[in-house]
Amino acid sequence: MHTMPVSTGEAAFPHILTFSDLRLYVYVCLFVALDVAVPWLCHIIHPLAGPMFLPLFFFVLLAGILFGWRAGILVGLFSPLISYGLSGMPLPQILPRIITEATVYGLVAGLLYGYFRRGLLTSLIGALIAGRLAAFMLMALALNLSYSATLAWQTAKTGWPGMALQLLLLPLIVVLLERLWSKHHHAEP
């Protein structure tokens, strides 16, 4: 079964891929590989580069935006697990929070942009808020509420450059990919 892009004017994305579409798994593997490699490189550059620039979440959000909520969930779930298995990052004590946050980012970005057809920036902001809330709720269940609020504030304060970069770069990347996609498909006979 082939899936067609959702009609959003002239936009080529998102391609809402179903679980029966082999392309979903190819793209998920590509994005998980990027999600493992880029944070690893960031941590080599500086130990705080990961928490500051949030590179793992970048490709989760992009997968959800480009290929729908299924791709977003799979990349969000498997990226932290595979990264942890290969490099020990994220640290075990924050791994459940990162998995929760990443999975919700991918799900909400894919749903808002692909299913509910919200704008790109609205979808990204909605996903960032939903992911942070889900991580906070998980921390509140596991820890006491005041400590969870302090920890959530600290992670947001440290990660604001990464969130700003996501909101700045992801729309540019999507527009660039749409233009390349459109140019490639108009060039075919």
Helix run count? 7
Largest sheet: none
Would you report the number of β strands? 0
CATH level-1 class: Mainly Alpha
Overall domain count: 1
Distance between the termini: 23 Å
**Average of the residue pLDDT scores:** 88
> What fraction strand?
under 5%
Backbone shape:
globular
What is the CA-based Rg, rounded? Answer: 17 Å
Task: Indicate the CATH architecture.
Answer: Orthogonal Bundle
Q: State the low-pLDDT regions, or none.
A: 1-10
Helix and strand content put the structural class at mainly alpha
**How much helicity do the residues have?**
over 70%
Order of helices and strands: HHHHHHH
CATH third-level topology: Arp2/3 complex 21 kDa subunit ARPC3
Provide a concise account of the structure shown.
The protein is mainly α and 189 residues long.
